[in-house]
Design goal:
alpha+beta, two-stranded antiparallel sheet, binds zinc ion
Length: 74
């Protein structure tokens, strides 16, 4: 396990060296699509999506989307 954490810190160090890249970890501001949708799973209101919604496909809120992805990977 020690070797893994060492590898990770090396990665972070390398990343922080590029001056063009903005610091901020996971959060990357993307183009958001504003609208008024409903989650096809839990019915939660969705006002913006990080991708262009497909009218033929059900739209899921962030929680259900992640749940489905996790289920799909298993
Ligand atoms: Zn949902």
């Amino acid at each position: 396990m020690k070797s893994i954490s060492g590898l990770e810190s090396n990665k972070v160090f390398k990343k922080s060296q590029s001056s063009d890249e903005q610091p901020g970890g996971d959060f990357q501001p993307r183009e958001m699509h504003q609208g008024d949708w409903e989650c096809a799973d839990c019915g939660a209101k969705i006002t913006e999506l990080p991708f262009k919604p497909d009218a033929d496909r059900p739209i899921y809120c962030r929680d259900c989307w992640r749940k489905r992805r996790e289920r799909f990977r298993r």
